[in-house]
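Q: I'm a student working through a structural biology exercise. My instructor gave each of us a protein and asked us to get a predicted structure, then write a short paragraph describing it. Mine is G-protein coupled receptors family 1 profile domain-containing protein. I'm not confident about reading structure output yet, so if you can add a plain explanation after the tokens, that would really help. Here is the sequence I was given:
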Amino acid sequence: MWSCVVSNETDDTSNLQLCQNLSLILSIFTLIYLIVCFPIGLCYNALLLVVNLYNKVSMTMPDVYFVNIAIAGLVLNIIAPIQLLGPAYTQWAVWDFNNEVYITLLILFNISSLVIMYSTTLLSLDYYIECALPRTYMSSVYNTKHVCGFIWGGAVLTSFSSLLFYVCNHVSTKIIECSKMQNKEAADAIMVFIGYVVPAIAVFYAFVLILRIRKESTPLDQESGRLDPSVHRLLLASVSIQFVLWTPYYAILLVHTFYGMQGKHFYGQHAKTYYFLKDLSELLAFSSSFAMPLMYRHMNRNFSQKLSRLLKKLHGGSNQGCSHERSVVQQVVT
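A: Happy to help. First, here is the predicted structure for G-protein coupled receptors family 1 profile domain-containing protein. I'll explain a few features afterward.
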């Protein structure tokens, strides 16, 4: 949790009071996330994954992307407690910038964020293809599964370039070749451009195409092979929530990159405000692993039926953890 370790003896009473107030606010938000959002997000991500994998035959193109997002969400769920309970300025050794554990978790976080953003982006593009050219199988489940494989591979390769900067910052005194790769801001700049700017442009372009084709009445509007209209609402909601929750994180990353490249640093009250906004943005980013599966659960019409079949198959053996789902499904089916 955020604390006032950054304060020093020169801070006046007003600065110390501001630091304490920001610390209290962020600590409350963190506790709410860890007590409420974290277990629910973990449960629903696992539920989304298991239910769809059990019903592979009935999976649609959007389901594959949401399964992909759920896997990345589980990774974020694993990282979240370590990140939120032990940032660098609490002097916790596990989260020291020069520690290998920190670097590993940071790379996992970057990979997960890239998978989430690009899965959402490609979902919007594939949805346009499905609307424009139904029954062409260009956005089929088979093709989407291979695309998701490329997403994970591309995320790993993209994060590898950032990994070089972080590693060289750690071992620059030992390896001469790393002398020109000590700039952490360069790694952050890569993540901002590839992880946010490119997906934002692609999503904007996809939405323009979707709105254009939905305004034009065509004989294909009555095509039975089209996706359920609820998918459009799910797409709009998922893309909107993803960018709302991830934009503050990338904005703070961009600010840090800009000031770092100019050799500037935050001091006094500006430093306290910056660290508060930085950790609040990370908390919002972690919240995407809670919001996405919950939204999918309530907006996907077929999910309750799939869950009901799974529960009948297990004969009530999965009552632990997500036991409340059984009563909810029974009400829906009734």
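A: Here are two points you could use in your paragraph. The two ends are 45 Å apart (CA to CA). The first helix runs from residue 13 to 54. It's a good idea to check both against the output above yourself.
Q: Great, thank you!
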